[in-house]
Request: fold
Amino acid sequence: MTEKHFKRTLVTAALPYANGGVHIGHLAGVYVPADIYARYLRLRGREVLFVCGSDEHGVPITIRARKEGITPQDVVDRYHKMIKDSFAEFGISFDIYSRTTSKTHAQTATEFFRKLYDKGEFIEQESEQYYDEETKTFLADRYITGECPHCHNEGAYGDQCEKCGTSLSPTELINPKSAISGATPVLRKTKHWYLPLDKHQPWLEEWILKGHPEWRSNVYGQCKSWFEMGLQPRAVSRDLDWGIPVPVEGAEGKVMYVWFDAPIGYISNTRELLPDTWETWWKSDDTRLIHFIGKDNIVFHCIVFPAMLKAEGSYILPDNVPSNEFLNLEDEKISTSRNWAVWLHEYLQDLPGKQDVLRYVLTANAPETKDNNFTWKDFQARNNNELVAVYGNFVNRALVLTQKYFDGKVPSCGELTDADRQTIAEFQGVKADVERLIEKFRFRDALKEAMNLARIGNKYLADSEPWKVWKTDPDRVATILNIALQLVANLAIAFEPFLPMSSKRLREMICLGDANWERLGATDLLADGHQLGKPELLFDKIEDSVVEAQINKLEEIKKANAAAQAKAAPVAAPIEFEQWEKLDIRVGTVLECEKVPKADKLLRFLIDDGLERRTIVSGIAKYYAPEELVGKQVCFLANLPARKLRGIESQGMILSAEDLDGSLCVITPQKQVKPGSQVK
Reply:
């Protein structure tokens, strides 16, 4: 069935996991492109539903709850609100954003599981899993830690080593331990239900490889790779006390595996929004289902969830799954565990009113065919050189000139020149180009076409020079500005799916009313004599200080990560006690402290050592201002032979502790003692 035969489109965006916030990788990979597409369909007058919600079950949530001493419900309540509020402020236009802890979801998932069970679509298997005898619980993979057999990281999890990235099974870990009690777990038998994906492989291969060759190459290729490896049964239940209980006799203490209940969230959220008509969106052949996801979710949305839907028997299958690749941050992989991310809720606080700037940059850098990179310098450059200097500049010039020469009223268009006709012809083709690209999920290229309108406008004004023509031919200026203003109105429509907030501001500025997509490309969007509003800057320059603050924030995160991962230096070789006794370590009071000229690292100390005053030069200027140390007591090595440093005779050595991040901290006694006291 081709797209034109569909009556409606159901757009889903991957459910964000309610164990943290949303970051720019999520936005670029899933939510911005999904929102562009949904907004575009609405502008085209098509029947569309845009569905999402928080994914709130699974082991990581229980781990966080245990660490914080709160309940899993407390955890998901906190992050569900944060995510939902951030999406709303950012302008993601969901028709519903719900959650998988809702009553509707529990009912829907339970009915779905039970129908598959009653149809015999699951297989029942016993397997050995690790069991914590102290807490009397089976351990989920993430509750088991140990040494990675590949890189020998001692903090690897039972499902993955986050240091080397290798996928693991708990039995591969060396010296496994329970993350709950620290005890060594034992293997015990447990019963679970499995979805036999191997049974579904023949029709899945036919459906994807032959039925959907138009899918993105990364999606198509990953599915093909899974088929070549051979699909295996996948557990749909697990031993856990947080989740939706398995609705089967003898399944006490077991819940649905989070990967099974989460995609059903698309269905339950639709049902919550439209309790009487939800089946039209999920069970009618004239509904087109589109999943927007990141590449780490391809297998679930192209293989696992379709197998679940097919096994149930009454649901439609996705028509396309436009998955993006990953977005890196400052040339490094985004990592939530290392806090290496730009979080949406923090961005909204730090750069208020700049939602569309981030939408623009993430779309322009969208990782549609390969991993891409976000840097704050590029963010600044795209804002200043494109949004401000191209789009905003053209709009402002056209409106200011109209205000100056025609009191802000749209002048009449007179006789056209060849240059006028060429300009009109160039921008009239934008509608077909943008539509073609968005329909193919090529949002990055579609955005370029929209921005090209502003480039056309800037060139037209530069070539026409109305400010020069005004003195000799006001009628000609009227024609030039009429065409320029029609182009401004076209920009307000063309950017509506991409930059909705600035498009709304622009429409208010030119008093256009609602965007009418079908009129995109028209030359009579603004009638002669139409009164425009007051010209205002559509975008502001982002100063260096704003970007430097964000870069500095990332540098602090990098330092914190390095310190957390660093290990203390190995203990030096043993020495004899007599060697230790030879060291005369004493406490002295700092009388004077100053920087050594032309030596960035050195400070000169004058110290009262209890007998006399001595001078010591120390390389700690990077970590202390001299005035911080005056009056303090420090420990120093008193019987070190004197040596000259930068022409100053240093009579000893100040003792400092070197932190794991390389910084130095002067050693001081816990309480005041008399100068000259010895350290024993």
